[in-house]
Each structure stands twice: as structure tokens, then as C-alpha cells.
């Protein structure tokens, strides 16, 4: 009985560690070419504790991130497209995430591809 209880406890710890895998995989710098100037890149540097740095942002400068249920990436920051900053939250479905590629689908259907910059 003790062995069974110990084995079950280990399985719970292992499963709990796997649940955080997308958070850990997302850490680091993810870049994509800027469509209007493919010699330049833009993207994100995802840091621990929910911090994010926008790299070459066009109008939105994100500063926090989290992954909610169903692999939804929530990015929060400020939008400066109107001249004065407005707080914003953007939601993306993570459709692919591995060591080299991040694919995000916006709720308007647009898909964005990012490469892991190591």
C-alpha cells in the first residue's frame, strides 16, 4: 500500500511539472521578419515571472504575459497607435510551440510564425 501511495504521489508531481511546460518552453526570444522590411525583425523576449519585452514593436508595447486555459497566450501592455498610450490585452492561441518554432493564431484568424533566437 505504501509503495502504491508513493508511486501515485510521484505521478502527481510529474503531471504537475508537465502542466507548466508551455510556460517554460516560451521563455526566451522569439522573432519574425517585419513584412514591410524583411531585413528587420520583431517579436518578444518572454521572461520569468510573467514579464515580456516587445522587440521592435510597431504600436503595441507589451510588458506582461501569461498562458491561460486551452493554450491561450494573453499579452498585456500599452497601445500607442492613437498618440497617447491605451492599456490593451491581446489574446493568441498557441497552435505550435517547440524548441525552434512558435505559431500564434490571433482571434481574427491571422497566423503569426516566430523562430526561437538562441
Topology:
Layout: H1 2-19, H2 21-26, E1 28-34, E2 37-46, E3 52-55, E4 60-68, E5 72-79, E6 86-97, E7 101-106, E8 111-117
Antiparallel strand pairs: 1-2, 1-8, 2-3, 4-5, 5-6, 6-7, 7-8
Largest sheet: 8 strands, antiparallel
CATH class: Mainly Beta
| CATH topology title | Lipocalin
Strand content: over 45%
Task: Sketch the topology as an H/E string, one letter per element.
Answer: HHEEEEEEEE
Derived structural class: alpha+beta
Radius of gyration: 18 Å
Average pLDDT for all residues: 84
At CATH level 2, the architecture is Beta Barrel
Number of domains: 1
How does the overall form come out from the CA principal axes?
globular
Which regions contain 5 or more consecutive residues with pLDDT less than 50? 1-20
The number of helical runs is 2
Give me the count of strands: 8
Helix amount? 10-25%
Amino- and carboxy-terminal Cα gap: 47 Å
Strand numbers in spatial order across the main sheet: 3-2-1-8-7-6-5-4
Please characterize this protein's 3D structure.
The chain is of the alpha+beta class. It has one domain (2-117): Lipocalin (Beta Barrel). Helices cover 20% and strands 53% of the residues. It is built from two helices and eight strands. It has an eight-stranded antiparallel sheet. A hairpin with a 4-residue loop joins strand 7 and strand 8 (111-117). The longest helix has 18 residues, at 2-19. The model is unreliable at 1-20 (pLDDT under 50).
In short:
With 118 residues, this protein is of the alpha+beta class. The protein is 20% helix and 53% strand. The protein has 2 helices and 8 strands; from the N terminus they run ααββββββββ.
